[in-house]
Amino acid sequence: MTKIKTTLFNVILFILAIITVIPFVWMLISSFAPNSEIVKIGGSFWPGQFTLNNYVNIQENFNFMRMFANSLFIAVTTTVIIIYTSALIGFVFAKFKFKGNNLLFSIVLSTMMIPWAVTIIPKYEMMMDFGWLNTYTSLIVPSMISAFGIFMFRQSISQISDEMLEAARVDGASDWFIFHKIILPMSRNTISSLAIFQFLWSWEDFLWPYLMINDQSKQLLPVGLRLFNGQYGTDYGGLFAATSISIIPVIIIYLIFQKQFIAGIQSGTGK
Amino acid sequence: MIASIQNKFKNFLSLKNVAIAFLVIYFAIFMVYPISKAFIGSFYDWNPLIDQFNFVGLNNFKEVIGDGLFWNSIKNTLLFTSFSVSFRLVIGLGLAMLLHSKLAKYKSFFNGMFYMPTITPLVAVSFVWMWMFNPQFGLINNIFHLDINWLNDPKYALPAITIMTIWKDFGYATVIFLAGLMGLPKDVYEAADVDGASGFKKFTNITLPLLKPTTIFILITSLISYLQAYVQILIMTEGGPGTSTYVISYLIFDEAFVKYNFGTASAMSMILFVIIAILTAIMFKVTEERKITP
């Protein structure tokens, strides 16, 4: 009886999971189909013939992999920087007593409420004045700190015992040493979940690169997808192929960090 | 002497000082300055392309409040936000309960499947759903045997975008609820089992109250992000058909970076900020006041 119940339960879960991923499956299958098959009215889920042309074409006509590499570079760089600064600042908020600690932390938290629309116009003008338009400096420097990241690290680092840090201090370890050798290694779960969140946010960011970067060869992938759609609006196969490729890196990041992901969220948001 | 100077220097470069200095300077440049500038700019006729920055008092605000499109966008934003937030919470919690159940096998496989839309770039997802909703060969009409021109019909365009957003985002709520469920104390449930409490009783009397912090976290972060959603609109409908899918952040984008009316756009962004602040405060208040008696 329990066996039947378990099987039934998991079959239902499986059906729900299939419903969830069906758009991806459809996209992936169609990315190997010629356009004539994709737009066939009343066509079936499974195309009549398969081809690799869509993938070849997006590279030849659009230099798609260049944008892919650009995006990868920016997303990895900003994610690494943000993880480091968030851990550092989160550590200070969690373990150091100083005047204004709570006030400063509340200010940091409250910036999460500020809409992007408020700051983006002056930031755009600022980048113009700095002469950073069309450079990657404009994509990296303004996104080196994340209030969300600081919040997660403060929550998780405050659960590390003070005695251990005190013992290290007595042994003559500097705060920097403690941070690099104790705090960071112990924050593996938080690092994992922030890596997943932050990589996705950088990878999918549309508006900022759209405003900053003019050269198509420097452009990032989300903007590239839209440009492609504008230039080759009817090339559905190409778009399916480009979109399929754009999903891959985030899935890889997820698979790498997945194990610690939920535990990281637990220590970062629970209390 | 030298040692004491060295010490002072070391102290000056201590982790605490470096971190706080970095944070404060960074926030001054990339937060405080832009916010102040946007606030001031909302009282100016501001166009960076022709170097225009003239004081106009409250004109921008008057213009915005007198604009029918602005109110239409507010209405759309609130509709979109309330549906997206509620479905995200309900589906997220429901699936998290299923995944947390003892009966569920292959948990990390299912986790990954349900999380997949969430880890997919929004621009990509928006394109996928443009094809899903395509009236000629889209999957939605094919499967349900419908004949709806989803994204080109003013009646269906906003619901279509909302459906897509819910699908994209429920996974976020699922993992956070799941993390919350896994952190709940087991002994409370064991005690309830001893008392012979039903599953439903345990859900309403133990699980829900204990998940309150998690629920508030998801509620507030969702509210803030949906009130400023625009990417899916920009990709899928550009506010159309007509003005049926204009939301406030898309309107600001349009005003600022298509028409270059920075002053008007800043005034709108200030209003959006006030709306977000008020709604967040209300959420905190409501969730705090509802006393929970187990």
How do the helices and strands line up, and which of them pair or pack?
The complex is a heterodimer of chains A (271) and B (294).
Chain A: H1 2-30, H2 35-38, H3 53-62, H4 64-95, H5 101-110, H6 116-130, H7 137-140, H8 147-157, H9 162-170, H10 175-186, H11 188-204, H12 207-212, H13 221-231, H14 236-269
Chain B: H1 2-12, H2 15-41, E1 44-47, E2 52-55, H3 59-65, H4 68-100, H5 107-115, H6 122-132, H7 139-144, H8 157-182, H9 186-194, H10 199-210, H11 212-227, H12 231-236, H13 248-257, H14 262-289
Describe the structure.
The complex is a heterodimer of chains A (271) and B (294). Chain A is mainly α and 271 residues long. Chain A is built from 14 helices and no strands. The mean pLDDT of chain A is 89. By secondary structure, chain B is mainly α. Helix content of chain B is 72%, strand content 3%. In chain B, strands 1-2 form a two-stranded antiparallel ribbon. In chain B, a hairpin with a 4-residue loop joins strand 1 and strand 2. At the A-B interface, helix 1, helix 4, helix 5, helix 6 and helix 10 of A face helix 2, helix 4, helix 5, helix 6 and helix 8 of B. Chain B: Belongs to the binding-protein-dependent transport system permease family. Chain B: Residues 74-283 form the ABC transmembrane type-1 domain.
